[in-house]
Amino acid sequence: MKIIITFASIGMNHKTPTILFEDNHLIAVNKPAGWLVQADDTGDKPLSDWVKQYIKAKLNKPGDVYLGVLHRIDRPVSGIVLFARTSKAAERMSKAIQLHQIKKYYIAEVKGTPTVLSGVLEHYIARNESNNTSKAHTRPVPNSKEAKLEYRVLEQKGKMSRVEILLHTGRHHQIRSQFAAIHCPIVGDLKYGYPTPNIDASINLHAYKVQFEHPVKKEMIEIISAPDF
Hints:
Strand content: 35-45%
Radius of gyration: 18 Å
Largest sheet: 12 strands, mixed
Shape: globular
Helix content: 10-25%
């Protein structure tokens, strides 16, 4: 199988989406922190609309553009978001996500250093709809869902650490709540216990790598986007 590697180094203060990979079936975009993936009640322009406009302009397409949103990352988080350009690709990629066949890696800067420098975090996450947060519990609680990730500390930087994370599940605020549960909240994440905000309201969490089998060509694809923190 052919492996395609796309690398984009995103500069500091980068506030405009960047196309990382595209073909007739898929498009991968680097989402700046602060952008929504899909529209919500704020009325702010979401990344999905930006991508549709990009495709429409590039192809000079007069009608509506199909775009399948395959997954989301939180508004204050930056990094790779995958979209499908056809319904066939959307169906196959959604199935691959359900079967955990798509690997998603993140880079984070966290307060302090985890007691164990590499390992697995397993919790039961319960979402609080009223304040849009999640809490990671060591045991099952009502309406909780099992959450699992792998991590390794890449570097210790004074009072914080740089960590690589591989998600095994995709729960609401999973990385943020699980690292808060081990007393290592993500830098800038006031919602989960970090003491000070980032100036731009971002948090130091970036979806930096995704690996998957192309839904049509059956090639192995790896896309990398370097964080700007």
